[in-house]
Amino acid sequence: MPFARVKDLNMYYEEYGSGFPLVMIMGLDGNTSWWDPLLVRGLSEHFRVIIFDNRGAGKTGGTEGDYSIKMFADDTVGLMDALGIEKAHIFGLSMGGMIAQEIALNYPERVEKLVLAVTHPGGAEAIPPKPEIMDLITLDWREHAPEEIVGLWLKALFTPEFVEKYPIVAEISKEKLMENMITYENHLKQLKAIVNFSAYERLKHLKIPTLVIGAERDILVPPENSVKIAKAIPNAKLAIIKDAGHGVIVEKREEVLKLVLEFLK
């Protein structure tokens, strides 16, 4: 299994394809297993794709003390250094999109193009989900079996119509979500990093070509957040994908792949 030494971490990563680097950053609690393999395969036909486990998630070890989105951004750039990548396209999903914003703001010379999917700008400008969804995000895992937690997350990720139409895909997704599950302690630390994240007022300084992707029926990160980000970043392109939830990279894989390839190529 490939690991790279990045400061105080042994970071787990996977690499596919060849060509110009494309670094893909997963969201809250996620790890490499959470990426849709067909999306990764489609992108790897054109780019050297790097996926990895964030600090405290998957096979990358956790550390003492609080985490921050800036820390995750530094980790990502440290991984790029370890892999000899001077500059890359950065694709951030959900919390990964927040990390991607911090990379672009703090290391603009390392980013060729930026893709921000189903994410928000943080701080007071972030539009939160409805209270019942916040209750799910802040649920005390210690009172529930892992299968129950993942089952609840699936209902938040996918539209009911998608689950009804593709029950096998939903079941496979459930299995993937349970692979190398994050500890409750590290879940809370990642969650706290999201709460303390704020980039909106700085986004106007970005000069990196940016594609912002939202999902029309996203109940975890409402699509209005994507609209705000796209308006804040000069000349950003915005795409709101219809009839999709937060799991848009699975529900609308071909549409996402087409959008990203057209933007990056």
SSE layout and pairings?
Elements: E1 3-6, E2 9-16, E3 21-25, H1 37-44, E4 48-52, H2 69-82, E5 88-93, H3 95-106, E6 111-117, H4 131-137, H5 146-157, H6 160-165, H7 167-177, H8 184-195, E7 210-215, H9 224-232, E8 237-241, H10 248-251, H11 253-264
Parallel strand pairs: 3-4, 3-5, 5-6, 6-7, 7-8
Antiparallel strand pairs: 1-2, 2-4
Helix pairs in contact: 1-11, 2-3, 5-7
Shape: globular
- Structural class, from secondary structure content? alpha/beta
Strand content: 15-25%
The residue ranges in which pLDDT falls below 50 over 5 or more consecutive positions are none
Number of helices: 11
Integer count of domains = 1
Q: Say which CATH homologous superfamily is assigned.
A: Alpha/Beta hydrolase fold, catalytic domain
CATH class label? Alpha Beta
Major sheet characteristics: 8 strands, mixed
CATH architecture: 3-Layer(aba) Sandwich
**Overall mean confidence score, pLDDT:** 95
CATH topology: Rossmann fold
The helix/strand order is EEEHEHEHEHHHHHEHEHH
Total strands: 8
Helix content: 40-55%
In spatial order, strands of the major sheet run: 1-2-4-3-5-6-7-8
